[in-house]
Specification:
heterodimer, A: mainly alpha, about 5% strand, B: mainly alpha, two-stranded antiparallel ribbon, 8 helices
């Protein structure tokens, strides 16, 4: 066959692809209800915690709306579910950045909010550079 | 070469390629997908990570098959390594579907350019042995007892059936490593065995950050809590990895076993 084909693939795994249907359906688009970490990263960097680093605490009316919404969601939501929905996890790797061998990453380790916030700070730091 | 971090996604193309794979994956459709599963963020995370682990294992066996061809290994053994690529990709789809059934995969960033740690040895036989030891003798050998335990604690018909199928495959994946080493036995000198011991030790030690961690979720749905995982891992490292390697003159350095709490002095 020499003619070119138009290829359509079926997505069977993607973040937000949660369904009770069979895997042959196309994954639904991720819900807009949750604030992606990337939007936070685009916000202006503002110190919000107690100032051990000497940073200035900014009043709410001077903060970006996205940041206020994120703070509200973190305050109200359960730790694990929200963190899973908003933070992007990394695969477990060895010290050279290669995946751990085998299939033994079955240990259930909860992703706590402080770790999430440090990820957000990392994203903010990257957006400044 | 690293390609940088990208979101981990999987897709199928269907057509003749889907039909070709169909006989190998048809059993997935027969699992009890009608089971109502509870919500578990930890289980979604574990099954998403599992999908990636299986994907990386597929890459590893592809590398192993090519490396074995360069050594003139028996062609049925090489064919098995190639066939394991299919096994692992079927497991990848299975894990993706289980993650979806639990409420959806979590966002996972991966580097598709760094799926398999390359061997450092120049000699083709030793290079192949590095890959085999790391993937099969350590990785797959650890996987079998850990997944058996996950299955016992699953508390779900679907997860139990899924893990049963995976464990059956992974057992033969581990066996390939021992058979390869036994075939290559008279061509591995003391330096080669010492090198392979260090390779195995590095692979075992890489799991150290997983052990002893606090804040574990509960066991079930494929997840293992800390109290279940840690001792099972240590036992597997001793019995399923260190002991059979030692029987072949490949000794994991004591410091690497100690890093995961599996040094003989603690028995």
């Amino acid at each position: 066959m020499t003619h070119k084909r138009k290829i359509l693939t079926v997505l069977i795994l993607s973040a937000g692809c949660g369904t009770t249907a069979t895997s042959r359906s196309v994954a639904p688009a991720p819900s807009d209800a949750r604030l992606p970490v990337t939007e936070v990263a685009a916000a202006q960097p503002v110190a919000v915690a107690a100032p051990p680093t000497g940073q200035v605490i900014v009043a709410d009316d001077a903060q970006p709306k996205a940041r206020l919404q994120l703070r509200s969601e973190l305050y109200q939501a359960g730790t694990s579910e929200r963190a899973l929905g908003q933070a992007s996890l990394r695969a477990l790797c060895d010290d050279h950045g290669y995946p751990l061998v085998g299939n033994v990453a079955t240990k259930g380790m909860r992703y706590d909010v402080s770790a999430y916030c440090s990820d957000v700070r990392l994203q903010l730091a990257k957006s400044d550079t | 070469m690293s390609a940088g971090l990208v979101p981990f996604e999987l897709s199928t193309i269907g057509g003749p390629w889907g039909r070709r794979l169909a006989p190998r994956r048809a059993w997935i459709d027969e699992l009890p997908w009608d089971e109502a599963l509870p919500s578990s963020p930890e289980a979604r995370q574990v099954w998403t990570a599992t999908a990636f682990s299986e994907y990386a294992s597929a890459a590893a066996f592809a590398e192993i098959a090519a490396a074995m061809l360069a050594t003139g290994a028996p062609i049925d053994l090489v064919a098995a390594a190639g066939d394991f690529v299919v096994d692992e990709l079927v497991h990848t789809e299975l894990a993706a579907r289980v993650a979806a059934a639990l409420g959806g995969a979590v966002a996972l960033e991966v580097d598709l350019g760094k799926l398999v740690r390359p061997p450092v040895a120049v000699d083709p036989l030793l290079a192949a042995a590095e890959l085999v030891v790391r993937t099969s003798c350590v990785g797959e050998a650890l996987t079998v007892p850990i997944l058996k335990l996950s299955r016992r604690l699953a508390g779900s018909r679907l997860v139990d059936a899924a893990l049963a199928a995976v464990v059956a495959d992974e057992a033969s994946h581990a066996q390939l490593g021992w058979w390869f080493l036994d075939w290559a036995d008279d061509r591995l000198d003391d330096d080669a065995r010492a090198h392979l011991g260090r390779v195995a030790g590095g692979a075992v030690r890489a799991f150290a950050p997983l052990l002893g961690a606090a804040g574990c979720g509960r066991s079930g749905l494929g997840v293992l809590d800390c109290a279940a995982y840690d001792p099972a891992f240590v036992d597997a490292a001793r019995r399923s990895v260190a002991a059979p390697l030692a029987a072949r003159g490949i000794v994991i350095p004591a410091a690497d076993l100690a890093a995961v709490g599996a040094d003989p002095a603690r028995e």
